[in-house]
Amino acid sequence: MITLFSDSLSISPYVFSSFISLREKGLPFELVFVDLEKGEQHAGTFQDASLTSRVPALHDGAIAISESSAIVEYLDEAYPAPAHAALLPRSLADRARARQLMAWMRSDLMALRDERPTTTMFLERAKAPLTKAGEEAAAKLVRVADAALPSGKTSLFDAYSIVDSELAFMLHRLLLNGHDVPAKVRAFAEAQWRRPSVAEYVARERPGANL
User: Fold this and answer.
1) How many domains does the chain have?
2) Coil, strand, or helix at residue 2?
3) S-S: 126 plus which of 7, 120, 144, 191, CB 3.0-4.6 Å?
4) 3-state SS string over 46-106?
5) Over the stretch 89-100, which tens digit does the pLDDT of each residue have?
6) Considering only CA atoms, which of 12, 16, 19 is closest in space to residue 2?
7) Given its phi and psi angles, is residue 146 left (phi above 0), alpha (psi -120 to 50 degrees) or beta?
8) Which residues span the domain enclosing 137?
9) How far apart are CA 83 and CA 158, in angstroms?
10) pLDDT tens for residues 62-91?
11) Is residue 193 over pLDDT 80?
């Protein structure tokens, strides 16, 4: 049995990526919640297994991995296509582009992540307008999404990949908080949000939500 360790509120974009990856692969798994506010990520058994004391962490038998990008790579190699759905594109160039976008979303757009955190997606909507830095980050996100997305498509590549879900998640920081997004980008994000694996995660019950 595979175990996925998640934040207790189910609002982490990195847990989201790992959860969607497991669902898309069709792999049975147990979801175990770690209360970050209580510091459970630093408990001895979890800390020893996760190495970095962060969620998500994945246990697959004797293998323990943390960091969502590493989890995606592991699952795609340990449970490859065609027996299981691919998480990354098949062609070398497209896989490189997917990894580029995944790395970028984890390391850039800090102002947008600060001003439209995942709490505003799942618990309570943002009340303050974006600052100039937030607006610049939002504009960059939309520009990159528009440039990367082929016209008339609702996937970045020839078939679904995990980066589709990750980009849609980032764009919903804007969409769910009422920001205008170009029609092409909105159609992509909303189509991905309806994907069964994504819809299941979004619909999870979250204590304290006030939407």
Assistant:
1) 2
2) strand
3) 120
4) HHHHHCCCCCCEEEECCEEEECHHHHHHHHHHHCCCCCCCCCCCCCHHHHHHHHHHHHHHH
5) 999 999 999 999
6) 19
7) alpha
8) 92-200
9) 19
10) 999 999 999 999 999 999 999 999 999 999
11) yes
